[in-house]
Design a protein that fits this description.
The protein is mainly α and about 525 residues long.
């Protein structure tokens, strides 16, 4: 746990204009891991069609390719934050940077879906070393509250912008190179941090850290992995004893984990933080904002490429307005909270997200990409506004000596939201597609059983099957796949709409008394 004594201000002791320049340069370097982690959460979704064709991946394998990374990362964030307190946050950041780049280079040339999933697990391990250090280092670099608030806004805008930039970069790389380039690009992105980080980023650590509780680390992993895996099984295989038992195991482990944290003198996760209503509500807003955004990106990437016929780079460029909106919204709400209570700003952002999903849930997707891209723009504005202020509320709602733990939980919320968005909404979307797909008669004539099976598994498989058929039958297969896919999109959008609306009401009610910023 971070204490006031652990805040080790700039070791260079620079002051005035020179110190200010070094501060912002350090922030710029910290943005590299923030952007990379955010980009990696969404970039691979645009490579999924190419991966499905190249590696013959099943629908469940495609979901695990996306989710293995954020699942491991989210499970280890709090643990790695504890390690950072002990060995130095900058040191942990640089170790994670080197490991992430090395594993990315190896995974880019994966010959099978299993290899790729394993590589994504390794990326999650080293990625967990990157994120816990960033907010703690920002707090150390910017002790002044006003400058720190702007730095946190830039941090949040970078994360949101990176999530939106991921499809653009991923689409361009897939179109001009191959799907592995989406992973290989991490190497040049990380080089500036490795070279200049030791020079411009000051080290900080807790001089009196508690001991590392290894059982708590294992328990945290045994909570998330079974729950998410069980949700995937329920969505793809239907209700059954095995997936329900797996989810029950995860929830039971979660109960044991919470009990252990309450008994430990130096817990891995300080559970008392959640008794603060402002803190808990802000965490919920963070999780749901990323939940909605990443769930949207997952199906939009497939819709634009496979149903609208757009190239990966063209579909990525189509999302540029949303990228800009996310970043701008995150920066504009910083001065806005001086006039409007922050709780209402968060509620407004979540309401915009709900409006975006309302458009998707009841709109006609067959009229072209304009409706979905317009909904994404509205959703991006809401995410940018909500997550920026919720992060500020998270850090400001706890005592100073607990700010390090609060930062780690906040970053975990980012990853949990991204994970749940792809895992839950993605699983529901896949299950709905598989359940509603009705291939026309005559497909089995001249088509292999493998091709037909792949068409029943994923939208990419159906589009590939249609490409092997004569014109009238190909159009019928594509239309059947569109209908089945859109059924899942309507369902997931309706679920997200209800969640966003409920979160907006919760934020407005619970956070209404939080005063405006000074």
């Amino acid at each position: 746990m971070t204490t006031p004594a652990s805040i080790n201000h700039n070791t260079s002791k620079t002051t005035g204009r020179q110190g200010s320049r070094r501060d912002w340069l350090a922030l710029g370097l910290l943005m590299f891991p923030v952007l990379l982690v955010a980009v990696d959460n969404t970039a691979l979704t645009f490579a999924l069609p190419a991966i499905a064709r190249s590696l013959d991946a099943t629908g469940l394998q495609l979901l695990w390719i996306v989710d293995a990374y954020p699942l491991v990362l989210a499970g280890l964030l709090v643990a790695m934050g504890s390690f950072g307190d002990r060995i130095g946050r900058r040191r942990l950041l640089l170790i994670g940077t080197a490991g992430f780049a090395a594993v990315s280079a190896v995974t880019a040339f994966a010959p099978s879906a299993e290899w790729l999933i394993t590589g994504r697990v390794g990326l999650g391990f080293f990625g967990a070393m990157l994120m816990p250090s960033t907010l703690s280092l920002i707090r150390n670099i910017f002790p002044d509250p006003n400058r720190r608030r702007l730095a946190v806004a830039i941090w949040a805008a970078g994360f949101s912008g990176g999530a939106a930039l991921g499809p653009i970069l991923g689409g361009w790389l897939v179109e001009h190179f191959w799907w592995g380039a989406v992973l290989l690009v991490a190497v040049p992105i990380m080089l500036p941090l490795l070279v200049f980080g030791p020079v411009f980023i000051p080290e900080s650590r807790d001089p009196l850290p508690g001991r590392v509780d290894v059982p708590s680390i294992l328990l945290s992993l045994l909570v998330m992995v079974p729950v998410v895996y069980g949700i995937k099984e329920l969505a793809t295989e239907g209700v059954g004893a095995m997936p329900l038992a797996i989810i029950g195991l995860g929830l039971a482990t979660g109960f044991v984990f919470v009990r252990r944290q309450k008994r430990l003198a130096s817990p891995l996760l300080d559970m008392s933080l959640f008794s603060n209503k402002v803190f808990s509500t802000a965490i919920t807003a963070n999780v749901l904002a990323l939940f909605s955004f990443n769930g949207f990106i997952l199906f939009l990437a497939q819709h634009l490429q496979l149903l609208e016929g757009m190239s990966p780079s063209a579909s990525g460029v189509a999302m540029v307005p949303a990228l800009i909106a996310t970043v701008v919204a995150g920066l504009l709400v910083v001065p806005l909270v001086r006039k409007i209570r922050p709780g209402f700003v968060v509620a407004g952002g979540l309401s915009l997200s709900a409006a975006g999903y309302l458009t998707v849930a009841f709109g006609d997707h067959s009229t072209g990409p304009a409706l979905l891209l317009g909904a994404l723009l509205v959703l991006a504005l809401g995410v940018g506004a909500a997550e920026t202020i919720s992060n500020d509320l998270i850090l400001g709602s706890v005592p100073a000596e607990k700010s390090g733990a609060a930062a780690a939980i906040s970053e975990t919320g980012y990853e949990v939201g991204s994970l749940l968005g792809t895992a839950i909404l993605g699983s529901i979307l896949t299950a709905s597609y598989q359940q509603h797909l009705l291939l026309p008669a005559g497909v089995s004539d001249g088509s292999s059983a493998t091709a037909i099976h792949q068409a029943g598994e994923t939208l990419a498989g159906a589009v590939e099957l249609a490409g092997t058929l004569p014109s009238p039958l190909a159009g019928a297969v594509t239309e059947a796949a569109r209908t089945a896919f859109d059924s899942g999109v309507h369902i997931t959008a309706a679920i997200a709409l209800v969640l966003m609306a409920a979160a907006a009401v919760l934020a407005a009610v619970v956070l209404r008394k939080v005063p405006t910023a000074e």
